[in-house]
Amino acid sequence: MKTAHELISIAHEYEAALIAFLQDLVRIRSVNGQEGEKAVAERIAGEAQRLELPAQLIAADPDRPNVLVSWGRGEAGFALIGHMDTVAEGDPAHWTHPPFGAEIYEGRLYGRGAADNKAGIACGLYTIAVLRDQGLLDPERARILLAAVVDEESGASSTLGVRTLLDRGLLAAQGAIYTYTSDIVCVGHRGLLRLVLEARGQAIHTGSAEWSRGQGGVNAVTGLASILVNLEKLRLSAPSHPAFEGLGCTLTPGTLFRGGEFESMVPASASATVDVRLMPGQPADEVIAAIQQVIDSEIAQRPGLSVTMTIKNNVPGAAIPPDHRLVRIASRHAEAVSGHRWPVAGAGPTNEGYMLIEAGIPTLCGFGPTGGNAHAPDEWVEIASLPRTVAMYAGIIHDYLTQTREG
């Protein structure tokens, strides 16, 4: 096996092509809910073809195909996974570099999706090229996959991306890395429970005698607002986890709020979104029941008010053991390549790693290049971290698939 220094040197040989490829990916808009990912998928498949790596488009929705790049025919499989869709750029005036310009400035490549998650996809593709070109794995014994998937940004519960590939048996692997930018060896993520509360009251003229006397009208806005204030006070018990230090169950009421019909009407309708971040092992049903108790208490105090609760997202928290063999190997290569030890920790935001872990695939739920400002203006990825990431991925995959299982 090559040393970390040798792997970095090899990866630098691919750096110019990798950067140009990443710039192309960032310049292709793929904002979730606005554009499909098809153009990005076709660009990835085209780059794979240029590198003489087999690629196929696999779609549950023809306008939103996933890309699966593979090399090798062996029993031992490893998957690198990244999503092609992005969040919206917001107001371009808040950016100092064009949101889809992929400009490079002072060692950083800027653009929406650069860090989340297109740099990881680019690194993953070139990792497969390095493993093949350098003869680091026997293709008769090993099989490496890059899955560039769709629709992650809709809430990490889409049936169009990772779920489609798993259900079709196309992600069979003994280990995986979700290729987010990171500075940790990410063993898992918190879950996401997102609820929509819809309140119904009774409309009446705000200047009417009935409203003045308290004989008619039910204010859905203040009723729902009171529920949200009480939810903010709610304390939920959640299991602790050694890799999630400083993170717990977080309930954020009213991340979205809408209400009322006209300025002179007692509002008869209001809706709000409640965002809950679940710890691994925390049952969503218990949280839903606690929230329902708050709703019921408020309804009892406001005759005529009704509130329905709809589950929009219900993604469990998930994690692999902090001492898992994949974690130990990744930690060793991260330190060898970067020169410092990376913390072993869980991620606060949710991602699709839980699907892979539930399918029995040990997964690092975020491990990749250095970057920042995901979901914010001036999203960036560090250019120098790209070849380092390829070197880390190549070393991890080699060791994970070839070394005798430890412990």
The biggest beta sheet, please?
Answer: 6 strands, mixed
CATH architecture of the largest domain: 3-Layer(aba) Sandwich
Provide the low-confidence segments as ranges.
Answer: none
Distance between the termini: 21 Å
CATH topology of the largest domain: Aminopeptidase
* Computed CA radius of gyration, to the nearest angstrom: 24 Å
In percent, how helical is the residue content? Answer: 25-40%
Name the strands of the widest sheet in spatial order.
Answer: 1-2-6-3-7-15
Report the strand count: 17
CATH superfamily of the largest domain: Zn peptidases
What is the count of DSSP helices, taking H or I runs of 4+ residues?
Answer: 11
* Computed structural class: alpha+beta
Residues in β-strands, percent: 15-25%
Summed over residues and divided by their number, the pLDDT gives a mean of 96
Q: Give the domain tally.
A: 2
Q: Name the helix and strand elements from N-terminus to C-terminus, one letter apiece.
A: HHHEEEEEHEHEEEHHEEHEEHEHEEEH
Top-tier CATH class of the largest domain: Alpha Beta
Shape: elongated
Describe this structure in words.
Helix content is 33%, strand content 23%. By secondary structure, the protein is α+β, with helices and mostly antiparallel strands. α7 (220-233) packs across α8.
Summarize the structure.
With 407 residues, this protein is an alpha+beta fold. The chain is 33% helix and 23% strand.
Can you lay out the helices and strands and say which pair or pack?
Layout (H helix, E strand, L loop, with lengths): L3 H9 L2 H13 L10 H13 L4 E4 L7 E6 L4 E8 L20 E2 L2 E3 L3 H20 L8 E8 L12 H6 L7 E4 L6 E5 L1 E10 L8 H5 L6 H14 L16 E10 L9 E10 L5 H18 L4 E10 L2 E2 L5 H14 L5 E4 L5 H6 L4 E2 L6 E2 L7 E3 L2 H18 L5
Parallel strand pairs: 3-6, 3-7, 7-15, 8-14
Antiparallel strand pairs: 1-2, 2-6, 4-5, 5-17, 8-13, 9-11, 9-12, 10-11, 16-17
